[in-house]
Amino acid sequence: MYLGIDLGTSAVKTVLMDETQNIKAQASCSLPITQPQPLWSEQNPHDWWLATCDTIKTLQINHADLLAQVKAIGLSGQMHGATLLDQHNQVLRPAILWNDGRSAKQCQILAERVPQYQTITGNLIMAGFTAPKLLWVAEHEPEVFSQVAKVLLPKDYLRLLMTGVYATDPSDASGTAWLNVGQRRWSEEMLQATGLKLTHMPELFEGCDATAQVTPELAVEWGIPPETIVAGGAGDNAAAAVSMNVIAPGSAFLSLGTSGVYFVASKDYRTNPTAGVHTFCHCLPKLWHQMTVHLSAASCLSWLSSVVGASPFELLEEAETTPPSHDTIIFLPYLSGERTPHNDPYARGVFFGLSHTTQRSDLTRAVLEGVAFAFADGQDAMLAAQLPIQEVAVVGGGARSIYWGRILATVLNRPLVYREDREAGAALGAARLGWLAVHSINPENAFSTPPIENTVAPEQNLLETYAKKRAIFQQLYGQLRGVFAEAL
After folding, report:
1. Are 456 and 94 in contact (CB under 8 A)?
2. For the stretch 425-462, what's the b/e string if a residue is b when 16 or more beta carbons lie within 10 angstroms of its beta carbon?
3. Which of 169, 236, 344, 421 is labelled catalytic?
């Protein structure tokens, strides 16, 4: 039996997987987020641990016999989060999250200190990345920065509490701006530019490597064998890729989670940083991936749901069954800023084209379309880098809606596939990495691809309509870009 733990932004999700890679049980526990100031987004790392233990307690109630058979644990998690620890492993401040935009100025400082940073990291330095967050702490909270002994990514803080070991993997480390992504090692130059040393970093392991065994105390508390190993694991997107077997070059997935990700696997280290395309290590050896990141995806629908007082399911059903009152409503889905292709932490959400006839269903439809237009911008950026994109699977919570899938397929003008276990995502991928840490098998041939449940094709009669709406969408951002920063 194998345990996969995914530390997401809104929840911790845990799965138990058997030797044949079938899910036997699942549990989840929600997480709070604080936004004490504009652009800020933080979580208390202690909440991550409490939520993780809560999911284990849920599994213990009905599946204690399966937990007693666990051989390995895989970890995945939200990327980029700055978890700052002192020499006694005490958390120094709330973790600064991936969708926090406070450190735009520090990105420029790092770029000036290391002019060749794109060659080293393969990426633009973005406000969500970890390195500029540390510069912000050094400037605004020097008493905290002076005590920093270790900087861990979110999932690796869980590992520390589980094993007592500081470790991470290249896929997660790629999002720090401290990794030489092509060489899969820490860059001392980038660390020095942030006022840090190699000793501040955890040790690097491939995602399918064993990093340590759980502590005896944890084994007793969780009801798992004391010899249980913890694999290197992965950032959430690379783990989701493993769950769908997106490993072969050109295979891809589109994730509709809190954020949106368009992920393409590659054997080559191929970059296009100027368009905001992320080039990161895959969580398997000698593999990389490119992806576009859109900071608000399914979270846009969740936001609308909270504002209008209806569940996301109700909104989706209403939008699908209610004819539009008019076709000119556009939504810019930049509720937390945007990465690809704009790299703009100041961008914000906008409704355009409202009138007295606008209905709630029109707003929902505009939100779904706006997210799709953002993904299309990302797809264009990857195609500009001559990245081959083959079959695209849809994963994440938003993958429940085939209606949204039809919009996405039409805007992207490519078919999308919906596979079994698509909502398990990164937790299943983490469990698979735990499985691989136990078995000596070539990672490229280790996993099956979940069966296809649905294939959604573009709706040809809407291609022209969406092309016109997307052109307005792009014009709106261009005209508003300078206003966003002034309005904050």
Report:
1. no
2. bbbbbbbbbbbbbeeeeebeebbebbeeeeebebeeee
3. 236
Please list the residues that pair with 262 across neighbouring strands: 254, 292
Taking only the tens place, the pLDDT of each residue in 223-263 is 999 999 999 999 999 999 999 899 988 999 999 988 899 99
**Per this entry, what is the length of the chain?**
488
Residue with tokens 């058997």: 18
DSSP 8-class letter at 446: S
**Is 344 annotated in the active site?**
no
Residue 348, phi-psi category: left (phi > 0), alpha (psi -120 to 50), beta (remainder): beta
| One-letter amino acid for residue 196 of the chain | L
> Rounded mean pLDDT of 263-281?
87
> What 3-state DSSP class applies to 391?
coil
CA dihedral of residues 378, 38, 157, 107 (deg, nearest 10): 60
Closest Cα to residue 266, out of 284, 246, 288?
288
- The three-state secondary structure class of 28 is strand
pLDDT digits (tens, 9 = 90+) for 296-336: 999 999 999 999 999 999 999 999 999 888 778 999 999 98
Contacts of 397 (CB under 8 A, 6+ apart): 256, 257, 298, 423
Please give the Cα distance from 244 to 394 (Å, whole number): 9
At residue 274, the pLDDT reads 80
Which residues are registered as beta bridge partners of 352? 330
384 alpha carbon, distance to own chain's centre:
23
